[in-house]
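User: Show me a protein chain along with its predicted structure.
Assistant: Here is one chain, sequence first, then structure tokens.
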Amino acid sequence: MVRAKFKVESKTERAGGGGNVELNPVTGGSAENEEFWKYTPAGSINMYIDNVNALEKFEVGKEYYVDFTEAGGDE
């Protein structure tokens, strides 16, 4: 597993439900963030989320861990 830490930069909700969330890597503000920034490449995550309950979990300005785990190979 690889763990990164991202911050929600913007959230756009659509009429009728769903919306977009854009996250960028943390760069500072705490010792933990500075440590993550040393090892997290630059980039962004942009997601369209159709599930209103999931979308409401994301708040602009808040930070979230993102875990990358291999999805297995059972095909």
